[in-house]
Amino acid sequence: MSDSLSSASLLLPRDDGFKLECSFDFPNSGITVLFGASGSGKTTVLRCIAGLERARGFVKVDGVYWQNDAQKLFLPTWERPLGYVFQEASLFPHMTAKQNIEFAVKRSKSADARSRMEEAIDLLGIRGLLGRKPAQLSGGERQRVAIARAVATEPKIMLFDEPLAALDFKRKSEIMPWLEKLKGNLKIPMLYVTHSAEEVLHLADNLIVMEDGKIKTSGALTDVLANIDLPIKIGEDAGVLLKGKVVSKEPEWSLMTVDCGNIALHISDNGQPVGSAASLRILAREVVFAIDRPVDLSVQNAFEGTVEEISIHGDGADALVRTNCSGQIIIGKLTRKALSELGIKEGSRIWLLIKSVAVLSV
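Given the sequence above, the corresponding structure tokens read:
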């Protein structure tokens, strides 16, 4: 594992039969999401990184060992420069928002903690909330204060344990843009635990999928979603995530065009301005295959590509097909019968059809 990455190797058996057994690395910037069902070990990983639980193995953050059993090294939690944000904001109720942040800053070893506090206040947009006590804040506002408090201590890593789980849809929608802003401004690794598809698609740069205490698959978000050997169901179904930019609009038809590099998709206009970044989700079940170039169809998006891989799991009726369309990977689902009748094989040149209304803006 490279020193340009943070890394961990953890082995933690429990008396109830659960065993955490995983090794992984993650970039020293951006958000790495730990995703999986309840009980898969996501939170246990965070607790081991933080030193709240002691597994066998090692923890290395930005080139520095916090735990290394081979060297008999184990730093207690209070010696690990980290920020930890829980489901509940856990603010002191008798203190104002500013006093809560200052309480953490006073315990920081960083000489720049005071200036970092001011930066965190502006970064999370809470300057107008500083004089209020927690009871006077909404759930989303409390979490923003809690995040600012963690950032103000100038941590080497941020740990988020389902920070939006206790919020309703409206509050989640309010805080999500601030988390995206945080991702773009903090140049430190962030580990983020969730089982929410929306949070994965909005926030993740990298994805670690956990199951029964082990890592099922991991990698860059777009790569993991495009892997049909281990199809990961994020939300409704397997599918890919494409990144692009809004390049034009057709106001008459309420459509806009998103350039994703070598292909452009026509989708419903969601109000994003021309020039803005766009993330598009295409579910495998929404992709239609054709052998010849289609004509006289209502479908607005048609791309020719080469089949790279076909995956059939067991004796089920379905097959997943991974196709390279001018450098963009799209996966589609069809029946094994259709696969056979069309004669689709690895290396085949085929057309993919995707309705504009089926493309999801993330």
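The longest helix spans residues 169-185. Try to locate this feature in the token string yourself.
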